[in-house]
Predict the structure.
Amino acid sequence: MERQRKGALLLSNESLMPGQPQLFPNPEPRTDRMTVTAERDTPPSRRMAPVWLQRLSLFVLVLFCVYLGVLVMILPWWTRIWDHNMFIQARPRLAAVLYNGAVRGMISGLGLLDIWIGISEAVHYRDYRG
């Protein structure tokens, strides 16, 4: 019976219980030291995602950025949502800041920035083919 010691784990070619398949494959054959170091020095091959997956991820990213940007741009000026928000009304100091028109404008500017990022990603898109 051939056994190899790897740390505290003993691997065997025989199953420990009858009727149970062997869970660990047979150990790999030993290679010489030069082959192992040569394999370690070569960079691993990079696989690129398929083009359809790249385009789908771009579409989802652009859709997400534009949707979120429009929401963040319009939400501060939607009085039914912004002025009657229970979270803001429960905190008077926060309400004093968030009801200011300049702060609303800055938040809307973040929404415009998010829309710009989404459109910029779409315009500068390139397919990466492996």
